[in-house]
């Protein structure tokens, strides 16, 4: 049976020329530099990290559709969840991207494979909104509760309320919009950095939401959906502890999370997670230089598979 919240299949992109993207550094405070390695060494390390992560996911029973990116002009291509998403009922959405360099990440071959392997009814393309400077960067800008039909979204350059409203109308989600800030008071660029929703748990940095009434409303909505909250500190958010994704493996639900993020959690938090999922740590320190982690690397496939001959 197809899991509503936790996909069994994912799309990943293996970059051949990875580098942190200068176009996105202005509003992504999670990006970092590594002066100890050459650009070529960083690129090779990123390639190896994606390869290893995909292998671990396959070993856990997740179907991984791994695509290659051999171009040099799309440094963030390793994060495909920003430019498309898939939804039960056979729907795909394509999104308008804030940075011009990221618009090159959209690929017809990815969508064609999904049409071949899964039942796709329609593709709704919002990318034309880029010409109006209206942006909505997919399941980076939104964290979707597929069961309760709620789209949680932190305001940012990457999340325009007009585009969000249009998406929620098309896909039958209720938008819950809020302001979220890092420890230095800067707006957090993507919602999925501070929040990850699973079937039974939700990793969330409640400290990032300064509006107490809004914070309480979010806690209430998550509790109403049966989610137990694992509250993350600013320091844990900075270690990408919120940037995790629940998937369906061969032996049940797994939580794909970076090894760095897992090390940042307390024993009590780890125990809480282990009550609901099998935790799968992935070592992606080079990828994390770009300001994203495991969740950003994985585009879940919420489509019904076709019976192939």
From TrEMBL:
Organism: Acidocella aquatica
Record-linked InterPro entries: Amdntrnsf_FN0238 (IPR014541)
Xref: Pfam families: DDAH_eukar
Family annotation (Gene3D superfamilies): L-arginine/glycine Amidinotransferase, Chain A
Protein name (Swiss-Prot/TrEMBL): Amidinotransferase
């Amino acid at each position: 049976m197809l899991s509503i919240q936790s996909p069994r299949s994912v799309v990943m992109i293996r970059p051949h020329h990875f580098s942190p993207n200068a176009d996105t550094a202005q509003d992504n405070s999670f990006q970092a530099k590594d002066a100890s390695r050459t650009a070529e060494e960083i690129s090779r390390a990123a390639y190896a990290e994606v390869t290893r992560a995909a292998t671990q996911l396959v070993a856990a029973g997740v179907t991984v559709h791994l695509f290659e990116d051999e171009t040099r002009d799309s440094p963030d291509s390793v994060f495909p969840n920003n430019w498309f998403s898939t939804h039960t009922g056979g729907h795909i959405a394509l999104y308008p991207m804030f940075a011009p360099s990221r618009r090159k990440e959209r690929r017809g071959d990815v969508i064609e494979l999904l049409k071949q392997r899964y039942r796709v009814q329609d593709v709704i393309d919002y990318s034309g909104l880029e010409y109006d400077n209206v942006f909505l960067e997919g399941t980076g800008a939104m964290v979707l509760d597929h069961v309760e039909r709620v789209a949680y979204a932190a305001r940012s350059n990457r999340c325009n309320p007009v585009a969000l409203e249009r998406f929620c109308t098309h896909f039958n989600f209720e938008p819950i919009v809020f302001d979220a800030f890092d420890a230095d008071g800067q707006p957090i660029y993507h919602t999925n950095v501070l929040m990850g929703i699973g079937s039974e748990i939700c990793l969330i940095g409640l400290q990032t939401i300064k509006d107490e009434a809004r914070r309480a409303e979010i806690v209430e909505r998550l509790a109403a959906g049966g989610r137990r909250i694992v509250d993350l500190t600013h320091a844990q958010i900075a270690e990408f502890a919120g940037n995790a994704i629940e998937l369906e493996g061969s032996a049940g639900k797994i939580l794909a999370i970076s090894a760095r993020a897992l090390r940042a959690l307390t024993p009590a938090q780890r125990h809480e997670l282990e009550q609901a999922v099998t935790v799968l740590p992935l070592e992606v320190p080079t990828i994390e230089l770009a300001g994203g982690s495991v969740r950003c690397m994985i585009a879940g496939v919420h489509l019904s598979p076709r019976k192939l001959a």
